[in-house]
Amino acid sequence: MDQSLQAFFRRQDESDDSLFYTVPRKVVHIDDYAIAALTDLYRELLQDGDTILDLMSSWRSHLPPELRPARTVGLGMNAEEMAENPQLDEWLLHDLNHEPALPFNDGIFDAALCAVSVQYMTRPLETFAEVRRLLKPGGIFAVSFSNRCFPTKAVSGWLYGGDQQHLGVVQSYFEASAGWRDIHTEDRTPQRERGLQDPLFAAWAYKVSQHQAPATAD
């Protein structure tokens, strides 16, 4: 990794992430309006019967209450938080920054989600490539974020960018990790509440099937 990328992914607090996440934080990290916007996004992208991976999971997943997934698996850093998440069928502890390789077989998930946590990834290209491996052909990976974070654990490049730059960063993760098509980036902040709520932004793409070519972003 060249020096500029090293600087981008450097953090103020480089101590073991397991120490930071030892204490459960049973709070939501975006307000009710942004949560509703995220749930609406999931309502558009997910289907009944999907097998879902909730990446960097916590005590809430914000899935639509009417959604009936076949299975939802949480992967995160705090056992107590995930144990209290009513939308997870199962969960496991895993530190993506320490080990991006995930303990699942190829092609078993229809969808993977990462809510308000992408800014903490120090090895995102490896992580995005690993998520692609776990998805079925045509499976979706949806990444969302707001303008909040734990600044000591976010990568430096994230802290010095604005909302549109952040969308570009996540788009670049999809493009550089390869094997994705139909990359979408959107401001999902409800217009009627703009300025009165936390913003919400999202990027998502689909795993390329064997006979498809990767596509550029919309």
Strand order of the largest sheet: 3-2-1-4-5-7-6
Q: Based on CA inertia axes, which overall geometry fits?
A: globular
CATH C-level class: Alpha Beta
What assembly state would you assign to the polypeptide chains in this entry? single chain
Distance between the termini: 29 Å
Examine the secondary-structure arrangement and name the CATH architecture: 3-Layer(aba) Sandwich
TL;DR of this structure?
It contains 7 helices and 7 strands. The chain is of the alpha/beta class and 218 residues long.
Description of the structure:
Helix 5 packs across helix 7. This protein has a 7-stranded mixed sheet. The protein is built from 7 helices and 7 strands; from the N terminus they run H-H-H-E-E-H-E-E-H-E-H-H-E-E. The longest helix is centred in the C-terminal third of the chain and has 15 residues, at 163-177. With 218 residues, the chain is α/β, with parallel strands linked by helices. It is globular, with a radius of gyration of 16 Å. The protein has one domain (3-207): Rossmann fold (3-Layer(aba) Sandwich). The chain starts with a helix and ends in an 11-residue tail after the last strand. The chain has helices spanning 3-8, 17-20, 32-45, 79-83, 124-134, 156-159, 163-177, and strands at residues 51-57, 71-76, 90-93, 109-115, 135-145, 180-187, 201-207.
